[in-house]
Amino acid sequence: MKDFFPSGTPHFEDENIGFLDIVLCSLFGPHKAQEEALGLKIIDPERHPLVCLYSSSHFWGISHMFEDMGRVITSDGEAQEQATKDLFEKLTVLEEGMKEFFPRGTPSINGENLGLLDILMCALFGPYKAHEEVLGMKTIDPERNPLLFSWVIAITELPVVKESTPPHEKLVALVQFIRQNALQSSVA
User: Fold this and answer.
1) pLDDT tens-place string over residues 130-158
2) Cα–Cα distance measured from residue 10 to residue 77, given in angstroms and rounded to the nearest whole number
3) What is the DSSP string of 104-170?
């Protein structure tokens, strides 16, 4: 990364987001939730300061939704209530922003024009039915967030997404596994 950022500070604009950005965001965006769930340090700021700076830059605001969703899945009680509240606040802000950019509703989505945000929203909320089944609550709701919900549905209905998405039962098992392990490790 030092070769890419000789000044030591990554800078992001919509026009220069590339493959490295997508990969690093996918891997390290939700690192705090992953660290909390696993009980391991994933990014050590002393050993990897640029990765830490990169993953916490202003562009990765969406990563906070990953962190909140991770906390919703891996916590109980008051901590889960706070994580849910934080997630819903961010979803409301995103919904309002979408209304400004897309006053006639959800943007047109097909397999040819998926962008970074489409991919991230699919990764985060594509398994919303599994989240609902395991958590007993709706993380994304057509009444509370109609544009976001219709956006996620449009993405998950794409043939390429349908083909690459694991069966519902496997998603439920994965979310249950993550939740149970996190709750057990927080008790120990």
Assistant:
1) 999 999 999 999 999 998 898 899 999 99
2) 38
3) TSSPP--TT---HHHHHHHHHHTTHHHHHHHHSS-SS-TTT-HHHHHHHHHHHTSHHHHHHSPPHHH
pLDDT in tens, 9-29: 555 444 455 545 555 555 565
Spatial neighbors of 158 by CB under 8 A, at least 6 apart, are 109, 110, 111, 114
Distance from C-alpha of 161 to C-alpha of 148, rounded to nearest angstrom: 17
Domains of the chain, by residue range, sit at: 43-179
Cβ pair 39, 72 in contact under 8 A: no
Q: Which two structure tokens, joined as six digits, stand for 62?
A: 């969406």
Q: CATH for 43-179, among 2.30.42.10, 2.60.120.920, 1.20.1050.10, 1.10.10.10? A: 1.20.1050.10
Find out whether 83 and 75 touch, Cβ atoms under 8 Å: yes
